[in-house]
């Protein structure tokens, strides 16, 4: 069967679109059960997410960690690894950035930010070395090792926050960073910051890397068919090692954007699970560096629009989170969509 | 009274979307005969058998089993009606014993307890009756492939099948085992069983079958009593045109030494047979064929040369230079290429397009990369060129590789591996699972490379292929060479003996 590029593209994103539509449909049933009009609720949600420039800014602000996180996840996933340790890599990255942020003074802002980001990336990188080496040297499954390291990261950052860099007061948080280390806001008073632009640049860079360079090619071959990679002379162990480290470094950047751009410090257990939700975003975006951008913005919109909707109609803001959860469920069922749609539409010969 | 026709299928159709896998199949199998079904890969043989066996339902058409109209919704029903199937890929549980595998799914006994005693007796009777020797207590994982197939056959008999379907049963057997299998099948026939034999090897059809049905493009093109056809007629019916498989092999004068392997001993990997002290040479313009039952060290030999498996002892010299442990991608740059045994496992990436697969193994080559990025124009130009040169049928460069037929996938691999004019070609099962038209083409391409002075190491399970292409043939058994000679000085019987591990005297010339 011949497929032109547009048809091919639609075929690629169809499962994601279907997952979102199914989630919205079930969400509508829930809204009706509450006794409200789903159309009204969704309109309010849309308005809250994209109604004016400040709602756009808030939506993009909420989308930013998901873009970083999904990029981190997909780099590993494309090489065949399931990095579920983004949360840990994010925490160590966030605190490393903050330590550089408040330890150095009187630097040009650009340089200060750069050093803080490098520190964050290095911290995430270090956090990924352990599972990467365990995987390559002795075959330890990365899901186990990365998830364990999440707990180590929680404990380590809590210790540093409470016992080492604790700012006096009731809140478990560190000192504020030097003003020069703060990622400049793009549209104050929104917390949307230059980290968003960095995330978009990173997405484009990763797209080029994965699909237009031999190294990205090798990475994808390793993830899809290591046997063919072996005969093609691709050293899969080396690729896996680098993909995991790159993933960890981007995970670290995800943390730095939050701590340097939004809070200006490290707040103990600040994350509502960015590192895990990002996995769903990556899957919704088909593990494609450009596909995850609309997916992340959708998640940002659901959260942001949800808050606004709860003020307009009598539907709790948690509906946004419920929709996110439903999308995750349907994306997890992607295999079902693909297999069944395909057999409905064309079928496999023999 | 037993019905005259064991199986009648009329007008069977099965579509998968636009793909007409079966588009009007008619089949009449007389009770107590051996009926061969031949057709190229993708002709619809497997789909037909799956419809019959209840693995999926046909869209239209009728199936009569001993005069009774049937339509099975699961294999269990098919089994209950006396149909047994020996699949091409064995369905055995390695960790269980032979006996346990045979009774699996039809365990005797009451409640949750198994009655091994009775079943052992039944199984032993079956084995004895047909002379199928089996050690019932051996674990399947310790049993050679030939025997595993025997287990599958006993399994089918144990369930009382009266219609036995065998899908490409001889692929894993050595010549003597094939003869033995034919005897057993004839024994079944004498016993009143009906046998359906699916194959693409026409000489087997001629040797064994009573009737033959030819399938092409999902349709029955005809059926004949075996006395009315010959291999030539069948080949023409299968392909739909005249086929020339008589090869014109020019005399070449093997010149410089390309590959010298001295005492190659590879590391043991996961219970896979290692190479044990293998020595051989290949010269430019020469094809060295290696035969052996699968799993006798072929992989170790190939991967040892390609630097994919650790060499523990011995030396590999390529153009006089030691290449032990040199990375595969360097070897490719030096002019060693490999058509690997299993396209979808080691030769291609399913999820990749034709274009992406066309550069696999050469993705870092200077001709495709400029300034760190892929040079799309050059890659397109190159891919178009091999598509044209190797007559690959593909909708476009962007088409997924899985949209191509097996033969076209294989041609893409061959085009890719030959485009840089390699000096040494390692061709492993180069015609596995491809249609006759493609086989013809691939043979000609390999002979053309030989004419152009490439050294070719041909490793294949297809005895005919190796004998007709090679200048010398060596037989591999448990990682060692049992002997070697020019193909015209070898008989099928002597090769069969060597494949079974018997070293015949006078044939152990240096390889």
Could you give a quick summary of the protein structure above?
The complex is a heterodimer of chains A (350) and B (511). With 350 residues, chain A is an all-alpha fold. Chain A has helices at residues 5-34, 38-50, 53-78, 86-103, 109-138, 142-164, 194-212, 214-224, 226-231, 236-263, 274-284, 292-312, 318-332, 334-345.
Give me some keywords for this one.
heterodimer; A: 350 residues; mainly alpha; ABC transporter involved in vitamin B12 uptake, BtuC; 14 helices; 75% helix; 0% strand; globular; disordered C terminus; B: 511 residues; alpha/beta; Rossmann fold; 2 domains; 6-stranded mixed beta sheet; 17 helices; 22 strands
Q: Which CATH architecture of the largest domain in chain B is right?
A: 3-Layer(aba) Sandwich
**End-to-end separation of chain B:** 60 Å
What distance lies between the first and last C-alpha atoms of chain A, to the nearest angstrom? 15 Å
How is the biggest beta sheet of chain A arranged? Answer: none
Coarse structural class of chain B: alpha/beta
Discrete helix count of chain B: 17
**From the alpha-carbon coordinates, what is the Rg of chain B to the nearest angstrom?**
24 Å
Write down the overall geometry of chain A: globular
């Amino acid at each position: 069967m011949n497929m032109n590029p547009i048809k091919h593209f639609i075929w690629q994103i169809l499962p994601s679109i279907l997952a979102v539509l199914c989630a919205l449909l079930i969400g509508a049933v829930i809204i009706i059960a509450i006794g409200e009009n789903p159309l009204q609720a969704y309109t309010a949600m849309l308005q809250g997410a994209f109604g004016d420039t400040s709602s756009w800014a808030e939506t993009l602000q909420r989308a930013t960690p998901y873009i970083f996180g999904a990029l981190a996840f997909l780099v590993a996933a494309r090489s065949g690894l399931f990095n579920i340790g983004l949360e840990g890599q994010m925490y160590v990255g966030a605190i490393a950035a903050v330590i550089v942020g408040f330890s150095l003074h009187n630097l040009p802002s650009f340089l200060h930010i750069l050093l803080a980001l490098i520190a964050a990336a290095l911290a995430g990188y270090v956090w990924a070395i352990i599972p990467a080496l365990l995987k390559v040297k002795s075959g330890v499954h990365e899901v186990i090792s990365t998830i364990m390291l999440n707990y180590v990261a929680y404990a380590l950052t809590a210790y540093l926050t409470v016992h080492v860099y604790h700012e006096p007061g009731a809140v478990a948080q560190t000192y504020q960073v030097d003003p020069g280390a703060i990622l400049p806001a793009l549209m104050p008073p929104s917390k949307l910051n230059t980290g968003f632009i960095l995330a978009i640049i990173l997405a484009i860079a990763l797209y080029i890397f994965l699909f237009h360079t031999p190294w990205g090619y090798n990475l994808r071959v390793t993830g899809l068919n290591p046997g063919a990679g072996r005969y093609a002379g691709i050293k899969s162990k080396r690729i896996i090692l680098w993909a995991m480290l790159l993933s960890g470094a981007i995970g670290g950047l995800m943390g730095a954007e939050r701590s340097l751009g939004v809070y200006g410090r490290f707040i103990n257990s600040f994350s509502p699970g960015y590192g895990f939700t990002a996995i769903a975003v990556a899957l919704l975006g088909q593990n494609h560096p450009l596909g995850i951008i609309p997916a992340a913005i959708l998640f940002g919109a659901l959260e942001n629009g949800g808050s606004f909707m709860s003020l307009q109609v009598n539907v709790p803001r948690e509906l946004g989170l419920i929709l996110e959860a439903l999308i995750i469920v349907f994306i997890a069922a992607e295999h079902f969509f693909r297999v069944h749609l395909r057999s409905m539409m064309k079928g496999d010969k023999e | 009274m037993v019905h005259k026709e064991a199986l009648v299928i009329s007008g069977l159709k099965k579509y998968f979307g636009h793909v007409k896998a079966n588009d009007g199949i008619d089949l009449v199998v007389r009770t107590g005969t051996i009926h061969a079904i031949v057709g190229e890969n993708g002709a619809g043989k497997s789909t037909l058998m799956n419809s019959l066996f209840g693995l999926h339902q046909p869209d239209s058409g009728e199936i009569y089993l001993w005069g009774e109209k049937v339509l099975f919704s699961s294999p269990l029903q098919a089994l209950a009606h006396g149909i047994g199937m020996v699949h091409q890929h064995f369905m055995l549980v390695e960790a269980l014993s032979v006996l346990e595998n045979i009774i699996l799914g039809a365990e005797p006994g009451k409640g949750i307890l198994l009655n091994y005693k009775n079943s052992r007796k039944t199984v032993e009777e079956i084995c004895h009756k047909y002379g199928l020797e089996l050690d019932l207590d051996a674990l399947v994982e310790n049993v050679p492939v030939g025997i595993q197939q025997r287990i599958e056959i006993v399994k089918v008999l144990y369930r009382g099948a009266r219609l036995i379907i065998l899908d490409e049963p001889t692929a894993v057997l050595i010549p003597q085992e094939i003869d033995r299998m034919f005897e057993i099948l004839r024994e079944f026939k004498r016993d009143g069983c009906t046998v359906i034999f699916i194959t693409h090897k026409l000489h087997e059809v001629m040797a064994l079958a009573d009737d033959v049905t030819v399938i092409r493009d999902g349709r029955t093109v005809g059926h004949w009593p075996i006395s009315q056809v010959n291999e030539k007629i069948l080949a023409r019916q299968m392909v739909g045109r005249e086929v020339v498989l008589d090869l014109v092999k020019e005399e070449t004068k093997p010149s410089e030494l390309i590959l010298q392997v001295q005492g190659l001993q590879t590391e043991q990997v996961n219970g896979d047979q290692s190479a044990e002290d293998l020595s051989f040479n290949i010269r430019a313009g020469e094809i060295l064929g290696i035969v052996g039952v699968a799993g006798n060290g072929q992989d170790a030999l190939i991967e040892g040369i390609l630097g994919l498996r650790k060499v523990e002892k011995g030396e590999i010299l390529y153009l006089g230079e030691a290449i032990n442990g040199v990375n595969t991608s360097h070897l490719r740059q030096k002019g060693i290429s490999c058509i690997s045994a299993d396209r979808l496992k080691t030769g291609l990436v399913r999820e990749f397009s034709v274009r992406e697969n066309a550069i696999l193994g050469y993705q870092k080559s200077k001709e495709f990369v400029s300034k760190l990025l892929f040079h799309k124009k050059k890659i397109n130009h190159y891919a178009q060129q091999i598509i044209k040169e190797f007559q690959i049928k593909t909708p476009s460069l962007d088409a997924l590789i899985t949209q191509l037929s097996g033969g076209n996938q294989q041609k893409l691999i061959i085009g890719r591996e030959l485009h840089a004019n390699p000096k040494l070609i390692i061709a492993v099962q180069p015609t596995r699972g491809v249609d006759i038209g493609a086989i013809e083409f691939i043979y000609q391409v390999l002979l053309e490379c030989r004419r152009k002075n490439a050294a070719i190491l041909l490793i294949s399970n297809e005895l005919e292929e190796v004998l007709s292409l090679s200048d010398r043939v060596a037989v591999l058994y448990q990682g060692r060479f049992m002997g070697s000679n020019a193909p015209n000085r070898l008989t099928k019987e002597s090769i069969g003996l060597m494949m079974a591990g018997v070293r015949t005297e006078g044939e152990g010339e240096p390889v």
